[in-house]
Amino acid sequence: MLRSQIGRAVQGLEARDGLVSTDDWAMFRELCNVYYERFREITSCFWMEYLEPMRSEHPEVNFHELLAPDLDAIKETAADMLAFRDRIEAVRRSRCILPSTGASYGYFYSILAPEPWARYRKAAESAYLRVQELMSNTA
Question: How far is it, in rounded angstroms, from Cα 4 to Cα 1?
């Protein structure tokens, strides 16, 4: 659902004619902050607080067999959530422009800003790699 919500928000910006207002950009950043924070919470809960303890408590269970049908969907969702950032950046550079200066709007304190995004992306990729490791160790 989060993937769908952020996808619609990005599509809304992409479909606009003309420039995006500063108010709309601020609201979009806030939505992204919420969506990405919720995604982080969900993945952390699933990957770190559920799968890893279950593996430790039940080494006899073949998690690869149990989760293989869903792993592609999980991977696709994670990849899509990370890929939205490139689309957002393209919109920011093309439609989020201050007419007086021609400069793109900033990300300010958003998760989408370069430094927070790099940390977010690294943490998300690291968490997914742990899931893959879990799956390969139980196959």
Answer: 5
Buried/exposed 109-132: b ≥16 CB within 10 Å, e otherwise: ebbbeeeebeebeeebeebbeebe
Q: Determine the 3-state secondary structure of 10 from DSSP.
A: helix
Tell me how far apart the terminal alpha carbons of the chain are, to the nearest angstrom. Answer: 29
CB burial readout 74-88, b (16+ within 10 A) else e: eeebbeebbebbeeb
DSSP H or E segment with residue 99: none
Structure tokens at 68: 């293989």
Q: Is 90 exceeded by the pLDDT of residue 136?
A: no
Q: Where do runs of H (alpha helix) occur along the chain?
A: 2-15, 22-43, 52-57, 63-95, 114-138
pLDDT in tens, 24-55: 999 999 999 999 999 999 888 887 787 778 77
